[in-house]
Amino acid sequence: MKKSFVLLLSLFLLSSIMLAGCGKAANEGAPATNGEQPATNDKPSEPKASEEPFEITIRHTQVGESKKFRLALLEDVVKKTQEAVPGLKIKLDAVDSEVNRKEKLRGEMAAGKPPEIFDVFGSPDAALYAKEGLMLDLTPILEELGLKDKFTTLAPFTHDGKIYGLPIGGSIEGFFYNKAYFEEKGLKVPATLDELEKLAETIKADGKIPFAQSSKDAWIPLMTTNNLWSYYGGPEITYGFKTGETKWTDENMVKAVAKHQEWVQKGYYKKGELGFEYADMRNQIITGEAIMMMDGSWANSVFRDPAQAGDTVGKIGFFNMPPLKAGDPVVVMQDANNGYGFSSAVAEDPRKLQAVKEFIKFMWTEEMQLRGLKEDGVLPAMKMDLEQMKTTSDDPLMQDIFKAVSEIGTSFPAFDALVQAEVNTALSMGIQQIIGGEIDPVKMLENVQAAQDAANAAEPQ
How far apart are CA 163 and CA 142, in angstroms? Predict the structure, then answer.
């Protein structure tokens, strides 16, 4: 790829020299004019920007009823961008998040032809694509627009000191719960993991499902596992897998996976969870079949929307997964790893590059961040005072989430931001085998460590 680029560059320079030479020769053979312009009937005209129609594509993952508010926000930004750039037509391409990340976008990147703008995970995806020269370096654009220092973090989208994408929002993971049921039964939010388990036993004895869960897509149950191992092994343990400093087979990792398996075996989840889609577990809460649910804070929009949650609106609360011991710091997955990336090819077309700049200018504003928070419950990716966030929404569920943010002692990014794709695949297969009772925690983690060793060995030194 580099040789091809050098050859193309050489040909381009050679052509430029030849054209310059031809222009000089033509001028030398032309009659002298003593500095005067030759007579012409053409009237001088001011150069103006081309208004010829052109199109760019935005690949997004705002699919389904639960993401309708996010889609509306995107559509408003698209409208403003089109109005700001003469001739621009933006095509919206909607694809399911998992399909986009693990299939479609990977295939397009392999072919070297991603859409101009696309939904992307920062770490590790953006760095992998940036290494191949497929993502636009946004560093000078952010400097130009005055946005570089406006984000809570750009680390997931930063590679070799350059920025290759922007997070659309932030999130934390924790438990949504039926607050009305808790009040009716005299239950309280747990302060330790042991209290959480006792709650689960009480709820199960009452004929309810303690934890709503859908495990057809492995990333969903892995939210629970990831939070458990960050308590048992410490949140820093995940950082060491890729460097070899820590091992998946660590005894505390085994304890965490064994705890998740124990919850499955005790019947804390509905049978058949491996066949349930993401929306199914939310319906378990909405119908009152289940009482608690581990999910990302982004899910609050479902429970605040009467069209989706019905009579459950106003009856759902949120709390962080509690620590192992009372008084220990609260450890929470908190990151800003999902956002938009831009094809490096747009740099070759000034009009497309301008369209990208306008899209960034309209999408990443305080107004849009607060709108995303108010309408969709997405925590801001841009720097914002917590008190300002609290005043944006007086919704009780949002206030619970703000409280959860304020209680965080230590935060960590989700595991898939810290390990290679092959390791993620092995872990996904492993947790589904754990849930299905096909494997024990020790063997499952040995398999993941084998995948980690292979991925680490393949990394360039």
Answer: 9
